[in-house]
Write a structure and sequence with these properties.
The complex is a heterodimer of chains A (about 350) and B (about 625).
Chain A lengths: L3 H15 L5 H7 L4 H7 L12 H24 L4 H11 L1 H15 L4 H6 L12 H5 L4 H8 L5 H14 L2 H21 L6 H26 L4 H7 L9 H8 L4 H6 L5 H5 L5 H22 L3 H27 L4 H7 L10
Helix pairs in contact in A: 1-18, 4-18, 5-11, 6-11, 9-10, 10-11, 11-12, 12-17, 17-18, 18-19
Chain B lengths: L6 E9 L3 H11 L3 E2 L15 H18 L18 H46 L15 E9 L3 H9 L4 E8 L2 E9 L4 H10 L3 E2 L10 H53 L3 E4 L2 E9 L3 H11 L5 E5 L10 E2 L8 H10 L10 H15 L3 H13 L1 H4 L3 H18 L20 H29 L3 H6 L4 H20 L4 H21 L4 H25 L1 H22 L3 H39 L5 E2 L12
Helix pairs in contact in B: 1-6, 1-7, 2-3, 2-6, 3-6, 9-12, 9-18, 9-19, 10-12, 13-17, 13-18, 13-19, 15-16, 16-17, 18-19
Classes of the chains: A mainly alpha (about 350), B alpha+beta (about 625).
Chain lengths: ~350, ~625
Amino acid sequence: MNNTINQAYLKTRASVMAGQLIDATEVESYLHTPLQQLEKMFGLEGLSERGLSDAELNRTIERGLINTLMNELSILLRPLNGSARDILIYWSRKFELYNLKALIRGKLHNLPYDQIRESLHILPALISLPHEQLLRTENVPELLRQLEQTPYEGIARQARRVFEEKNESFSLDVTIDHRYYTGLLKHARACDSAEQPPLLRLIGSLIDRQNLPWLLRYRLNYMLSPTETYYLMIPSGRQLQSDLLKQLVNMQEIEQMLEALPAPLNDHLGECTNIMEVELAMGERLSYQARRCLSFSPSAVTRALAYLMLRELDLKRVFAIIQGRVLKLDEALIRQAADINTEVRHV
Amino acid sequence: MFKPLPMKQVLIQLLLDDLPQASLTLAELGSFSPNSADEYAESFPNIPGKQYRDRFQQARSRLQKIETHVQLTPPGKSLVTHVISDAELEQTNEWLGEVWERCSAYEEHFRRLTDEAHMLDQLEQALDNFSSLNIDLALLHGERLFLDLHIGMLPSTHVPQLKEAIGLADYLLFSYMENAGHTHVIIIGPKSNRENELSSVLDTAGFHALEIPPELQDEPGRIRQDLQLRRQSLDLEKQQREEAMSACADELRPTLEQCRDVLIMAEPLVAMEDAARSVGELAIITGWVPVKTLPTIEAELRRTLTHPFSITATTPTREQHSQVPTFLPTNWLTAPFSSLVKQYGIPRYGEINPTLVFAFSFIAMFGMMFGDVGHGLVIVLAAWLGRNKLNSFTPFVICAGLSATLFGVLYGSLFGYEHLFHAIWLPPLSDPLYMLSMALLWGVGFMVVISLLYIHNRLVSGELSHALFDTNGVVSITLYLSVLGGIYNLYQTGSFGVAPASMSIVTLLTLLAFKLIETHATPGERMLVATIETFETLTGYISNTLSFLRVAAFSLNHVALAIAVFTLADMMEGTGHWLMVIGGNLFILILEGAIVTIQALRLEYYEGFSRFFSGDGKEFTPLTLSLEGLK
């Protein structure tokens, strides 16, 4: 996007939309806001009164929140064209990849049609797979054959190779994620030279958040070799670059690995003792960096992407709160699900 | 004929055991449209047949997939029906599952053969590459004491990451060729206990090892021959597989067609969805039926159901009209016109069926714009000769041709020649102003008829105020006619006339008052919107009427084109002259014929339909014996 007016418009749009992002106090307040008011705030009026089953409730809330995000995405897309537009659309494909993983996992474990269908997000046609057709496939090879007829052909071909070699869902998930993030980088590199550095920094942060917890899991839980762990890492992280990753994969202890991280990452993760805490802390760090991008980035498309990333995190928390409250779960449990207790951690 | 068929909402109360038979009977009759029975959800909470539906959907999906490999003949019209039990459906589904497994294995095998052919291509290129290298290829063979060596290819996108990753295990990667998204590589490293580590990462990266024949350097011709043989054997295997599949298809076809018939007979119960509900042994079916078919439905259900049942039919209230499906009866003559009406939308229940108005006005306007005996008869002949391709649209084209012929007689035109016989009315170019005024009169008549249809439709919907005061209502049409009357007076006498003027002012003010009442906004905005909408009503009528000038314009254009063709033809002699006449007439027939069709459709859709029907009605979709859901 090289049009100054469009840049200014998109920045203004993103700034206005940023007013919808929720801070720690607001999230906390949602725990006690009357449920009907909360539902209304997020376009889910009358949800608790419909007597839905747990599965229906999940789907309805998810669908409502994804719709909100997709509507906002369509607003942000309006002034964009070319590669800048493509990267925002590509980012939103992650939701369809959740579906793809659910489909593959379901087929791999021979789950019934209804059970797989219930776990799928309903998405706009722009990024959606032909769910009904894929659900009606009877095994993973057939599913992958069908996928090869869709825009996800590349992912399907790679997934097929992994399935034939390894025949388990974990490797397929990894392959799909890897392919997605590589694609995101590729799209960022296709943007204008002025947009690229801030975009790559933001995506680098996203990749760091993905890489570190998975590096720990591959090495410490799944006991993969340093070579294979490194191969499964997504290249071009922001702080976790290839040399550092090579050092980390050769270490044996979580403490040793966290100590080896550069400042200020090691300070921030210094108190973590397990992978879950590392994941939460990396999530907070990403959120902090995305907020900075949203406020100060010279690139309008980076701001838009940062906004979408933050909004998705917010909506996930809101989803957890509404769902927990409709199901009348214990507040402590809702807090944990919505990541409220860790909100005060400094970044 | 002028209105959709009157409908009744029916409630059939029956025993649950009779539900499949009732669904089948209703589908055979093809005049029952199921409608959600939500209002009975409290008394009849269950929607029966969940497992049956799931099984059906799976079986249908399997059949659809199998049909991509096995061509089935279309289902016969005289299907001897019976109720499909759960067990029969299950058996059919299982058998289809087995057949699909075979087809799927065939697809997978075929896919593998295609991949192998691709690998052969890669191998051939790799060998070409190796044979031109000035190295001792024997070194690449066999087990080595200190060296672990791998030669192969992988997707090019994986190479940089793999190179770095295997570097951690002290391996080196060299790429020597890139082709079609794949990179050919040599991976080399010290022999150690890290070989397993390497093989795991190579698998993840999609690495395929390449065989390097030891005799490559000595006998390249033989290697090439081997590759050729492998390719031939691959092609042969493909061909054998295809033949086997074809033989298998021939063997399975009759049984598959029986399965298809089973699914056709099972579908009515599935298509009922929540129109059928049950509690205990009792069930209900709700839906819509045309009034005239009600006795037949009742009699047929009485004949086929084994247990007693009750059928209650109620006439929909005016408030329910938006829920009632619209059934537009058609015959061979009106079917194509009805299709074109449906392209715009479905009239609401109770509204005028616009098909006949559309058919008459379209045919008339086509003839007016394209009046020529010769061209008209050519169109009729072409439509008759191409009737197999035109199918149901044959009468449409024939009518258009006959209309052109009739107006050709009125205009005295035969293939553009205007002196061969005497015009019954007048040749268009002899008095263009008269033709234009006739077109205007046609337009005024069209607009009045359309407004009357609007008024009728609003009255049927119980919207009296809209019928009287809204755009296209009584007040608007009075305003339109009084303004037209005034303009005519002005043209004839030089004065607008007191009666038309006062009538125009009163109707204009009434229209403005109605718009003011109808608009919900702040006072200033309300005034602005109401004023603009009032004047837009008037200007809309005037501009839409002027739009009909094109009817005359195209009749003039038709003659003018013919004159142009004859002028060009007169510049030539002998064969050239006649070739020009024939070519020019073909040009007029094809190009102008298409333009006139589009213009007539535009006048119908834009000036006509948009004024009197919203097109948001629901089409009557009866249960039928088919595999395509509700039609």
